[in-house]
């Protein structure tokens, strides 16, 4: 066992410990010893974990991410479905195999500093306001760079477990171009900022996420496979994903999308609890996006005070997805990658072969929001196909929408609603 204390870190949360931590990680990789990070608060920029390395955070051990962007190495990576240069995460496994990162320690990204740079102190300002005024909503999320907490990239046979991730500047745990990954007993909390997804599975295969507890400001667990033209260029689907025995307290639930240009297939979501979330099981895409979502099994879900148990919007958030500039020779490379389109004949996402069963959704008597049981919206020329709901008991304010759905079977589905559809809820389509 290799102990971080041997390298004499400051551990005061005020003095940068990046170099000391990296030296310890490098030695652990060379000697194949487990690096034990003892109690202490370690201020750090980006750290890189090599293949065949085991890192163990003891109780009381905390990494605190620096709030200086220069402390994060710029790397070739993928952000929101587009390959680009972006700051590395706090912990990075790049082209690594046989890596274990385990707790019970924690990582604190000092998110509020990064969130304010994006949307100001009141969520109405910052860089977002500036870009919105220029009709550049589609690029601002890429331009305002914010570090993630954990990145697994082009890696395999890795395990992340028993850690607490809080206040991430951007996504908490991203898994991109990976195979044979397990994430378990992860706590994601205090994430009330923009794009603070919990766990993102991006163009990866054989991923198992289980027994996690998540509170997020965006999608809690999400499966993606690339955005528009850049996603189709890479053309690497997300497949063979299992998500189970997690508890979700806030955010947009378990999501497929919105970046699905290479397709998402063979996903099994089961034995999940949702408490006071905006969404339960969600699918979202854009008219420009393309790709196919298929062979999805969702079962044994308990939802309490969930506003949208099933929100499947194939033309979601048009302001974010609609590019307002054509690709030009003098455009910055990242802008060109985001703006790239796919052929018109391949646009519009096809959703097919979806099975949902054994779901109970209830509302408290004092639940203040308007809840919609179903929000299934596709395209007339590319409807959802072969959708089955079985043994579902849903309580909501309104039934909702079924638009462009072909071969829909509802078997023992019981829905209790209070009133007609509320037009005020239509604004959710553009979130």
From TrEMBL:
<keyword id="KW-0326">Glycosidase</keyword>
<dbReference type="InterPro" id="IPR011050">
    <property type="entry name" value="Pectin_lyase_fold/virulence"/>
</dbReference>
<comment type="similarity">
    <text>Belongs to the glycosyl hydrolase 28 family.</text>
</comment>
<dbReference type="InterPro" id="IPR006626">
    <property type="entry name" value="PbH1"/>
</dbReference>
<keyword id="KW-0378">Hydrolase</keyword>
<protein>
    <submittedName>
        <fullName>Glycoside hydrolase family 28 protein</fullName>
        <ecNumber>3.2.1.-</ecNumber>
    </submittedName>
</protein>
<dbReference type="GO" id="GO:0016798">
    <property type="term" value="F:hydrolase activity, acting on glycosyl bonds"/>
</dbReference>
<dbReference type="Pfam" id="PF00295">
    <property type="entry name" value="Glyco_hydro_28"/>
</dbReference>
<dbReference type="InterPro" id="IPR051801">
    <property type="entry name" value="GH28_Enzymes"/>
</dbReference>
<dbReference type="InterPro" id="IPR000743">
    <property type="entry name" value="Glyco_hydro_28"/>
</dbReference>
<dbReference type="InterPro" id="IPR012334">
    <property type="entry name" value="Pectin_lyas_fold"/>
</dbReference>
């Amino acid at each position: 066992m290799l102990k971080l204390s041997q390298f004499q870190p400051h551990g005061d949360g005020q003095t940068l410990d990046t170099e000391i931590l990296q030296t310890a990680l490098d030695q652990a990789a060379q000697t194949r010893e487990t690096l034990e990070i003892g109690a202490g608060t370690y201020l750090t920029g980006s750290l890189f974990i090599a293949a065949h390395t085991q890192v163990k955070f003891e109780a009381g051990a905390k990494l605190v991410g620096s709030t200086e962007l220069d402390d994060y190495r710029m790397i070739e990576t993928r952000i929101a479905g587009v390959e680009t240069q972006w700051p590395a995460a706090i912990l990075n496994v790049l082209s690594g195999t046989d890596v274990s990162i385990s707790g019970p320690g924690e990582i604190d990204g000092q998110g509020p500093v990064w969130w304010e740079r994006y949307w100001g102190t009141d969520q109405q300002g910052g860089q977002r306001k500036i870009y919105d005024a220029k009709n550049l909503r589609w690029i601002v999320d890429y331009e305002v760079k914010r570090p993630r907490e954990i990145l697994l990239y082009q890696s395999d046979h890795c395990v992340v477990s028993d850690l607490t991730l809080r206040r991430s500047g951007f996504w908490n745990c991203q898994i991109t171009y990976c195979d044979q990954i397990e994430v378990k007993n992860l706590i994601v909390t205090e994430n009330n900022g923009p794009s603070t997804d919990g766990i993102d599975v991006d163009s990866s295969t054989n991923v198992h996420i289980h027994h996690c507890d998540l509170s997020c400001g965006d999608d809690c667990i999400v499966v993606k496979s690339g955005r528009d033209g850049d996603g189709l260029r890479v053309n690497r689907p997300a497949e063979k994903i299992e998500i189970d025995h997690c508890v979700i307290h806030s955010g947009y639930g378990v999501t497929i999308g919105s970046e699905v240009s290479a397709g998402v297939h063979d996903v099994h979501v089961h034995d999940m609890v949702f408490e006071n979330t905006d969404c339960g099981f969600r699918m979202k895409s854009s008219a420009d996006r393309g790709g196919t979502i298929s062979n999805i099994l969702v079962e044994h879900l308990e939802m309490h005070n969930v506003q949208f148990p099933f929100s499947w919007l194939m033309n979601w958030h048009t302001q974010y997805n609609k590019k307002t500039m054509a690709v030009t020779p003098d455009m910055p490379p990242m802008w060109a990658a985001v703006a790239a389109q796919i052929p018109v004949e391949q646009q519009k996402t096809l959703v097919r072969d979806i099975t949902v069963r054994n779901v109970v959704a209830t509302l408290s008597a004092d639940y203040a929001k308007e809840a919609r049981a179903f929000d299934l919206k596709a395209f007339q020329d590319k409807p959802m196909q072969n959708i089955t709901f079985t043994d579902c008991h849903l309580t909501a304010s309104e039934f909702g929408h079924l638009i462009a759905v072909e071969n829909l079977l509802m078997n023992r589905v019981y829905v209790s609603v209070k009133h007609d559809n509320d037009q005020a809820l239509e604004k959710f389509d553009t979130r």
